[in-house]
Amino acid sequence: NAALAHYSPTNGSSRKLSVDEMYLSDTGGQYLGGTTDITRTVHWGVPTPLQKEAYTRVLMGNIDLSRLVFPPNTAGRVVESFARRALWDVGLNYGHGTGHGIGNFLSVHEWPVGFQSNNVPLTAGMFTSIEPGYYRDGEFGIRIEDVALVVEAQTKEKPFLTFEVVSLVPYDRNLIDLSLLSPEQIRYLNAYYENIRAIVGQELRRLQLEEEYSWLQRNTEP
User: Fold this and answer.
1) Where are the domains of the chain?
2) CB-count burial class (<10 Å; 0-12, 13-18, 19+) for 24
3) pLDDT tens across 141-199, in order?
4) Coil, strand, or helix at residue 33?
5) Which CATH architecture has domain 22-180?
6) Inter-CA distances, 117 with 2, 27, 46, 75, Å
7) Of 51, 52, 131, 165, which residue is 20 to 30 A from 154 by alpha carbon distance?
């Protein structure tokens, strides 16, 4: 059912889960400190070569946009194609937006931040989702969505901007084809995993959640 980008369940469309399929989990919550919107795609069995390549290319797009450095007052539509380039390279694409503004204890889709032509330029302090995907009708759907904060980049000249991903959830190692990733993308991924371990791992230890801590360690190995 995740092959539909915006699927709504009905009594007649529910299906049994198996280990032979991909699963897309679009999750979120509203808290006093802010709103979350995080999507992960997983496969608990043996993914097909197409599934693995498509997932990896979606991840590459997520990383490429997340690590991008760009000038102040850049419109989201100008940089949006960075999230699609790895898919475009092999003739794949997705038919929804790449991201949307996220409210602070407000709407999860908050206007006017985002990557579409009618969104405002990106400015430090804005929260946006970054969520490329790929969908194959009747077969499977992939989306990787993180929440990112627009921050100042550490550059030599006048202040440029970049993104700081604040969603601290590992990606599915079972679906990543490392041979497709560039050294820069792997370094980004390793730094992201180190950050997850430092923040989430410490909290799990504080709460004495040892099973969850062990899971986190396995899924954030370099």
Assistant:
1) 22-180, 182-221
2) buried
3) 999 999 999 999 988 887 899 999 999 999 999 999 999 999 999 999 999 999 999 99
4) coil
5) Alpha-Beta Complex (3.90)
6) 27, 26, 39, 8
7) 131
Work out whether the CA dihedral 47, 53, 55, 59 comes out positive or negative: positive
pLDDT for the residue 51: 97
When computed from its CA atoms, the radius of gyration of the chain, rounded to whole angstroms, is 18
Q: Where are the alpha helices (DSSP H) in 43-126?
A: 49-66, 76-79, 85-88
Backbone angles phi, psi at 88, to 5 degrees: -60, -35
pLDDT at 201: 98
**Distance in angstroms (rounded) separating the CA atoms of residues 15 and 61:** 30
From residue 124, alpha-carbon distances to 109, 129, 151, 193 in Å are 18, 14, 5, 24
How many Cβ atoms are within 10 Å of 97's Cβ, its own excluded?
16
**pTM of the complete model beyond 0.85:** yes
Average pLDDT estimate for 126-145: 95
